[in-house]
Amino acid sequence: MSFDTPLSLAGPLREPRQMLADQEYGGHSSIHDDAMAEKLGFRAGPIEGPTHFSQFQPLLAKIWGRDWFERGCFSSHFLNMVVEGEKVRAFAEVPAEGATSTRAWAEKADGTPVLEASASVGTGGPTLLEARMAALRPPGKLLILEDLKVGMTGAKDERVRMDPDQNMGALYPFSLNQKLAAITETSPWYSDAKASPWGRAIIPFEMLSVLFEYTSREAAFPVKGPAVGLFADQEIRVIDGPLFVGEEYVLRREIAALAESKRTESYWVRTRVFDAKGQKQVAEMLLNHATMKNSYAGYAEAG
């Protein structure tokens, strides 16, 4: 007997940890600081969106096995903020045998949606964010982002690495080992080279965002400030992975799109990740930085 009923995998309820309360950029606190969040109309500093990516790893590894770690892509649109103490559960539809993409989502314990996503391996059809970006309307007059242009590239090649006890700077004031002590889903592959199928410790999926944003200031994109931003959409694609702890990588950034809404001006950055020689691409990130208009002094008057 066979059925067409769609089935889903569900992970356990978890309480993700807030590790960005001390985050700084542009000489000021970020939206992850409670006082700043409340000033902007939020009830508390939210947990960073990519933190939730860890909860999907057991589900997607169950679906695609080792292939997920070597060629996986998670493309996410964030829907509602989560603050420390709230519980979250991850879900993923079980795809048909041989399928290379599926739908994923996360909810709070009361059913409030946290994010929606597509998950895939290889280079299948359009991802959730590719479809969202293609549907963007041209923005009106921009103020905070008026000096940005689509196609603008970062000022230089950026070199990054992540060692176990390396503090990841003002944007991410913690180390990999500190994250591993708090991460929702643990794996010996993240710290034990002997346990890893690749003979080296691998960087957790949620920490790829940290690695790729570590040197983002070096791109020197002319964004006006001070202004407070948040991640609205994020896609991480592993092309020739996994990425390894202690390995050096080269990053190249480009403005992929510009947009605005009633409350934000947004710039989408595509970050291509290469091996240490800068020749072989191993990963890519698409990130929508949404900058809060009401956090920029004089925005209403200038408009």
Describe the structure.
With 303 residues, this protein is α+β, with helices and mostly antiparallel strands. It has seven helices and twelve strands.
Key structural traits:
303 residues, alpha+beta, Thiol Ester Dehydrase, Chain A, two-stranded antiparallel sheet, 7 helices
Helix and strand topology:
Layout: E1 8-10, E2 24-25, E3 28-29, H1 34-39, H2 57-64, H3 66-71, E4 72-78, E5 88-93, E6 101-108, E7 113-121, H4 128-134, E8 158-160, H5 176-180, H6 205-213, E9 229-238, E10 249-260, E11 264-274, E12 281-292, H7 299-302
Antiparallel strand pairs: 1-5, 2-3, 4-7, 4-9, 5-6, 6-7, 8-10, 9-12, 10-11, 11-12
Mean pLDDT: 91
Strand line-up across the major sheet? 1-5-6-7-4-9-12-11-10-8
Rg is 19 Å
Unreliable segments (pLDDT under 50, ≥5 consecutive)? Answer: 28-35
What is the CATH topology descriptor?
Thiol Ester Dehydrase, Chain A
Helical element count? 7
Rounded to the nearest angstrom, the distance between the terminal CA atoms is: 63 Å
Output the structural class.
alpha+beta
Summary?
The chain has 303 residues and is of the alpha+beta class. The chain is built from 7 helices and 12 strands.
